[in-house]
Amino acid sequence: METLSAHVETAEKQLGHRRLYSRYKVLKYIGKGNLGSVFSAQCLEDGTYVAIKEVEVRSLSDDEKAAAASEIRNLTRVRHRSAVPVYDVFVDYASLCMVMGYVPGTNLAALIQQGAQAGRTMREPLVWKYFVQACHGLSAYHYGGLTHRNIKPSNLQVGEGQELLLGEPGITELVRASSSKALLPAPKYLAPEVWQGQPYGFAADIWALGCVLYELCSYKVPFEARSIQELRSKVCRGRFAPISARFTPELANIVYSLLTVDPSSRPNIDQVLASPIVRHYTNILLSEENARPPSLHRETDQ
């Protein structure tokens, strides 16, 4: 069986993933992520536009494929206006396809790069707007007992009206069974406990969120290094340059609390959302007309 990415234009005629092709019409290739290719598609039943991520799984055993599919199905219960929904999963011997919400627009990494190239610093209210939405998206995972494991600017989708949605989570079974390259898709956002091989959970997501917040303020990651070994050392020491004094002390304090080396001393997502400054910007966000979620479910005119 050829994979989905081999011949998109004749995808419906392929022998594999018959259930997928009976439900979705593959439209076009969007791009490539850490673990696979992404395509836009349309649900044949209701016209909904979706994104389908295809991951090569030929090297996985049947048990590993089943475990990955089960983990993805568990994600379908995560529903939040600031998190890209996962709808379904299809798997055969060659590839696994994850069906997710389609978010037209860009991502935070691209916006950060554009701002850095133009020499423009992001305004603090916009920093808060993006950060607060990321927090609420992450809360949907943590409240559901799920660790996200894939928080980074390139996985924070930005739609029209500056709506931000937390993208696809890291799938534990795929990472565990894949190559070392896939094991560290974004090492600059990994928490100290991950580098040290210790058990990790929600607090590792909070650390990654702190790295993203720092990057929004500085247009650079808090820990830069010329090698993986140097990066590990810097992250585990937790020493980084302070953010610009042009930002308020409230913002600086949030950054420093999230980037605390000891995971037990980091705030959890409830504590972050309960802080007065985050509550203030949450209320502003909810009152804005353009804070409405993008049309993920019934976007039929494209």
Short account of what is shown:
Its EC number is 2.7.11.1. By secondary structure, the chain is of the alpha+beta class. It has two domains: 20-101, Phosphorylase Kinase, domain 1, CATH 3.30.200; 105-291, Transferase(Phosphotransferase) domain 1 (Transferase(Phosphotransferase), domain 1, Orthogonal Bundle), CATH 1.10.510.10.
Explain this structure:
With 302 residues, the chain is α+β, with helices and mostly antiparallel strands. The protein has two domains: 82 residues, Phosphorylase Kinase, domain 1; 187 residues, Transferase(Phosphotransferase), domain 1 (Orthogonal Bundle). The protein is built from twelve helices and eight strands. The strands form two sheets. It has a five-stranded antiparallel sheet. A three-stranded antiparallel sheet has the order 6-7-8. β4 and β5 form a beta hairpin. The longest helix has 20 residues. The C terminus is likely disordered. Keywords: ATP-binding, Kinase, Nucleotide-binding, Serine/threonine-protein kinase, Transferase. It is an enzyme of class 2 (transferase). This is non-specific serine/threonine protein kinase. It catalyses: L-seryl-[protein] + ATP = O-phospho-L-seryl-[protein] + ADP + H(+); L-threonyl-[protein] + ATP = O-phospho-L-threonyl-[protein] + ADP + H(+). Its EC number is 2.7.11.1.
